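I am still learning, so can you show me any protein sequence you like together with the matching C-alpha cells, please?
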Amino acid sequence: MTIERQWIEIMKVEVPDAFSDDIAFVPEAGFIDAQIKLMAMPHECDWDTFLMRQFVMPVRQMFGLGARTVILAFDDYENVPRAKAITQAKRRARLVPIEFNEEQELPAEPPVPWDAAMANRVFKAKVVAWVTQALPGRLALSEGTKLVIDWRGASEEHWAAHEGAVIKEVRPRRQVGKFALCPWYLRIGLPSSSQTSGCSWSYPSSLRGPWRFPSTSPSRSG
C-alpha cells in the first residue's frame, strides 16, 4: 500500500469539513508516520536541523497536545508489501540512487538531491539508525511520558523518563497491521463525530455509508 502525495490536498478540497485546526479531546497517544518525515529534507539543511524539524518538533508537538505516549514508526524494509513495488519502480525510473555501501559513514552534510539519497536503501537505513539513536536525548522526556520507536525486527524501543534519566526498554512487537493501530472497531459508518478510547474521527456525510469493518479484535498474524 502507498499513498499518493496529493491525496491530502485533494481531500481538503473535496471534504473540508473532515479537517480541523485542533482536536476536541486530549489524546492518550499520538502516532507519527516517520517514513514521511524521513523522505522530506528541508532546503539548505544540515543534519542537526533535519533532526529538529522532521522529528524532534513533531514529537514535542504531540506531547504538547497532551499525549503521554508518542509512537514513531518507520518502514521495516524486511517486510515490504508487494503493492509497494509499484511506487518503488516509479521512484527508480525518475532518479539514479547515490553510491553508498554498508562500510561507509554518513557524510558531514545531507546529500543533494535528497531523493537520490533516499533511493539507496543502505543509506536510508543508516539515516534511520542515526535518528533513532539521537532523537531520545533531544526530547527531555518528563515523568509519565514515553516515546515508542518502531522500526525493524521483532522488537520496539520504549524510551521513558525515570528518576531524572531517560531509560530504554526493548519490548516484543505486536504483529498487527496498520489498520489496527486505532481500535479495531473503527468503521466507516460511525456517526459524523465520534470519540472512543482516546481516538477520534470526524466524517463528512459524503463519506458515511453502509460499509462496516469486522468488529472483532485485530489478528496478530500481520
The beta strands are 29-33, 69-73, 146-150, 155-162, 165-172, 193-196, 199-202. The longest strand covers residues 155-162. Confidence is low (pLDDT under 50) at residues 177-222. Residues 121-139 form the longest helix (19 residues).
